[in-house]
Amino acid sequence: MAFTVAIDGPAAAGKGTISKAVAAHFGFAHLDTGLLYRAVGAQVLAGGDPVTVARALNPADLEHDNLRTPAVAQAASEVAVIADVRSALVDFQRKFAARDGGAVLDGRDIGTVICPDAQAKLFITASAECRAERRYKELTGKGLSITLAQVLEDVKARDARDSSRATAPLIAAADAALIDTSDLSIAAAVARAVAAVEAAQIRVG
Ligand code: CDP
Ligand code: CDP
């Protein structure tokens, strides 16, 4: 039977880290849906048309190693505003969610739009300063030359665009368990997420 875990939240809140750990704990498959928008954003930066690129996207496009740059993150959030881009990506995400054996999907609109009937929903958040600090460490750790102030500005710009768009804005589903990771270690955040999924498993029976 399908069991879907929907994980949403703003940039660098810890969604990916928590999703991977939850998927490993329960033996579920994991899809980072941000990669879909990043892959479209990267191809648009290279001159492609957003809707054409989104309609032609294939899983191999998600494997490129240039998708984690700040420029691609901004481009992703710009193409993510376009309703036809979003609708081109829906089927792939819903098919993934419906697979046998369980699936974890993380993004912005999983619990609200892509999988409103998900058995477990989590909304992961943290203060913008905390998220910027974490992303800054990641990017400078990879050798990127960027300031903390720039990363904070990028994160805030993306949050604002993601939250204010007309189609599928970033918002916690009414039935999502909220986890603020600002003052949590990764292990503590993962433990809360696992407990929330276990509670959902018991509810579902
Ligand atoms: O997927 P998302 O952008 O929401 O965040 P992430 O890539 O999972 O996490 C961003 C960074 O925050 C990573 O370097 C994580 O190791 C770190 N993190 C943390 O320091 N504390 C947590 N409770 C969760 C994540
Ligand atoms: O890892 P991080 O949270 O920084 O970003 P991401 O999850 O890779 O998402 C990049 C961008 O894609 C976001 O800022 C959103 O604009 C968009 N996105 C979306 O609109 N819907 C999703 N389900 C996932 C990502």
Radius of gyration: 16 Å
Strand order of the largest sheet: 2-3-1-4-5
Tell me, briefly, the overall form.
globular
Number of strands: 5
Secondary-structure element pattern, one letter each: EHEHHHHEHEHHEH
CATH homologous superfamily annotation: P-loop containing nucleotide triphosphate hydrolases
**Percent range for β-strand residues:** 5-15%
**Biggest sheet character:** 5 strands, parallel
Give average pLDDT, whole number: 97
What is the CA-CA span between the terminal residues? Answer: 12 Å
CATH fold-level assignment: Rossmann fold
Number of helices: 9
Q: Bound compounds, please? A: cytidine-5'-diphosphate
Alpha-beta content class: alpha/beta
Q: In the CATH hierarchy, what is the class?
A: Alpha Beta
Low-confidence stretches: none
Q: Architecture in CATH? A: 3-Layer(aba) Sandwich
Give a verbal description of the structure.
The protein is an alpha/beta fold and 205 residues long. It has a single domain (4-204), classed as Rossmann fold, CATH 3.40.50.300. 54% of the residues lie in helices and 12% in strands. The chain has helices at 15-26, 34-45, 50-55, 70-79, 83-97, 110-114, 128-141, 148-164, 186-204, and strands at residues 4-8, 29-32, 103-107, 120-125, 177-180. The chain is globular and about 50 Å long. The termini are close together. 41% of the residues are buried. One cytidine-5'-diphosphate binds next to α1, α7 and α9. One cytidine-5'-diphosphate (CDP) is lined by residues 11-12, 16, 33-34, 37-38, 73, 76-77, 80, 107-109, 158, 162.
